[in-house]
User: What shape does this take?
Amino acid sequence: MSDQFGRNDLCWCGSGRKYKKCHAPIKERIENYRLKGYEVPHRKLLKTKQQIEGIRESSKRNIALLDFIEDYVVEGVTTEELDRLIFEKTKELGGTPATLNYNGYPKSVCISINDVACHGIPSDRVFLRNGDIANIDVSTIYNGFFSDSSRMFCVGAVSTEKQKLVDVAKECMELGIEQVKPWGFLGDVGQAVHDHARKNGYSVVREIGGHGIGLQFHEDPWVSYVSNQGTGMLLVPGLVFTVEPMINMGKSKIVTDKCDNWTVRTADGKPSAQWEKTVFVTETGYEVLTY
Ligand code: MF3
Ligand code: CO
Assistant: This one.
């Protein structure tokens, strides 16, 4: 068996260790899982130290944008206005909104209110109203590196029912993230998410999930939140992906708007909530990049 890296050379990942003490044993371990039939990440998905640094810098701006927008999320504001603010601020921070013109998506942010599960398009005809719950999903390119996160915002006085959905959706994301560790599986994340959602009487959107991220907006793996423990892609240090389950108060079924081809709503019209963070698998567990 030949290896493309010299065993005594410095490892490609930038750890400063020799290849034989760093990614040679990791590669062997991955190979063993692959031979046993497990889904394993391609080497290209494992980020180098330098790439992680780039994604971390992008993530800092991504988070700053969510912090910044909070004060503007008030009753009466249009989602168009919030989009404009996100666009301007992203530029000010030296970045570019990743969604803008992505597969024809026309705006700098996704804003999804109440029964809109995701991909709500900002519009000057959509006003935030008292009692709304809104997901603001910001994706940022900085220096060529991608980051992605979203939070829920409550407008004015929100019903206890909706507030609980928002809180449980956040817990689902957090419990999912806590499962991230090297030599675990992506299915461990999904299992933790849907266990918690179902325990609270909610359902989890099946068709739309998270994704690898960093050098591109959407990389492998695709991340399901209805997956099972011990299944799915093997988690290996250097893998970067989003944890972003959509939790529905009613049934899991969703429908995509036939006019704009983007807006995704719950089929039963009940509210949906989502939180998103970008995480990466470290040698001992995980690090949240968009904290
Ligand atoms: N931030 C969303 C995601 O998690 C963006 C979807 S692509 C868009 O992938 F074009 F719809 F914005
Ligand atoms: Co995402």
About this structure: The mean pLDDT is 97. The chain is about 30% helix and 20% strand. The first helix runs from residue 23 to 35.
